[in-house]
Amino acid sequence: MSQNLCYRLAFLLACVALSAANPVMADQVGDLKSKGKLLFADDFNRDDGSSDEDAMGNGWTSNSPWRADGQKQAFLDDGSIRIVTAPGAGHAVTIFHDIEPAFQDCVASFRYRMNEPADTLSFDFNDPKCKTVHSGHLVIVKLSRKAIQIQDSKTGTMNLEVREKFKDTPQSPGKKRLMAATQVSIPFESRLGQWYDVAIRTQGDLLTLFVDGKEMGELRSPGISHPTKRKLNIGAKTTSPDFDDLQVHSLDQ
């Protein structure tokens, strides 16, 4: 055996050992799911027919009727769902699903794929009964081509008092300090046409993000601990990402 081959084998074995010893590389997501209770799952393996309106089935609705004059913006295709903003739509496409019972701590997992350079996808924990925030927005994970942002909307930019306070001074130092305290941006490049597995764990006021089983980052902020997350909003703005294999496991005791 050549010396070069020996070095290569030694390096490979070291990488395997490191992966086994590193908890980041372990199946943390699967372990967490096994300890939780499945509240909702959807693999989108169905057909929406020839409907000219959003017809996703399985309890999903969308904002197309009032934001896009009823134009179809959610398409079931090849076992996943593609979200496409219609021409003239006055808002990002959003699809909704209620989750019962409401929960505090969870693992929410899904797959996504970006198809165009400008693609974005947002995953939003929501509580329509929470009247201190705009449209019930609590916690949002925003995926783009170059980064993933975690945002505590409840105490941050969607808080009604905050919106009123800074409506005339959106670039003020106070607003910037608030944003720095309630959101974080994690560098991550999504390759076009490639599927990625995402898992979001909420535990008290801490949200931890995983991509393809690897822990990518976290945010600790008060709004994350909202006790009654009862709805999911999945959104896209002027783009056409794919979304699939959603599961929500409650970790509440």
From TrEMBL:
Residues 48-68, 220-253 are annotated as: Disordered. This is 3-keto-disaccharide hydrolase domain-containing protein. InterPro entries: ConA-like_dom_sf. Keywords: Signal. Residues 1-26 form the signal peptide. The keyword Signal applies. It comes from Rubripirellula lacrimiformis. The keyword Signal applies.
